[in-house]
Amino acid sequence: AYKKLFPFDDETIHKLALFFTFEYKDGRAPKTYVSELSKEVELWKKYYCPGGLVYINHSGILIIFDKRESASKTRFTLTGIEKVLYEFCDEAHSEKYIHRELLKSGIKINMNDLETILDKLVEDRLMMVEDDWYLSLAVSIEEQASKLSPSNNIKQIFADAYSEIWEHVDL
């Protein structure tokens, strides 16, 4: 590209711009006062997530926020058997195993009703199913925040957002 800009031979162009150094006349050194900001920006870039699927568990209600680009709905509220199922499937389980464990825990549900609920959660893209094994996809917002980064500033922003959500949630 330099050849098109400058009328010099190859050797001169090669020596022209390998790197540049400079100093400010007034002696300032921006790296000394922007280094913390630069670190935070790099952490933000490293941990940035344009969308996600997270849940908040509060007072017997599971609220799932779907911020994925393809989300048809951004908020789901699960209570009762739906909540129990969703939380139970934080690890993959077969439908028969889920049914058996629900019955053991005192929740009476027939297989048809269980299938209907599971199918709806899959249809809403909150769960996935493969070969009759079901897995909940959302992660706890608290767990997500703890893994975001070692940056206390980012964690504080996340904690503030969490608090703000609860101020505006209609339960």
Question: Notable features of this structure?
Answer:
single chain, 171 residues, alpha+beta, Arc Repressor Mutant, subunit A, 2 domains, four-stranded mixed β-sheet, three-stranded antiparallel β-sheet
Overview of the molecule:
- Helices cover 50% and strands 16% of the residues.
- The chain has a four-stranded mixed β-sheet with strand order 3-2-1-7. Strands 4-6-5 form a three-stranded antiparallel β-sheet.
- The chain has 171 residues and is of the alpha+beta class.
- β1 and β2 form a beta hairpin.
- α7 (141-148) packs antiparallel against α8 (152-168).
- The model has no long low-confidence stretch (mean pLDDT 82).
- The protein contains eight helices and seven strands, in the order αααβββαβααβββαα.
- The chain has two domains: 2-47, no CATH class; 53-140, Winged helix-like DNA-binding domain superfamily/Winged helix DNA-binding domain (Arc Repressor Mutant, subunit A, Orthogonal Bundle).
Q: What is the CATH third-level topology name of the largest domain?
A: Arc Repressor Mutant, subunit A
In which order are the strands of the major sheet placed?
3-2-1-7
Structural classification:
alpha+beta
Helix content: 40-55%
Q: Describe the largest sheet.
A: 4 strands, mixed
- Between the first and last Cα atoms, what is the distance in angstroms? 62 Å
Mean pLDDT: 82
Q: What is the H level of CATH, i.e. the homologous superfamily of the largest domain? A: Winged helix-like DNA-binding domain superfamily/Winged helix DNA-binding domain
Briefly, what CATH class of the largest domain?
Mainly Alpha
Specify Rg, calculated over alpha carbons. 26 Å
* Regions with little confidence, pLDDT below 50 for 5+ residues: none
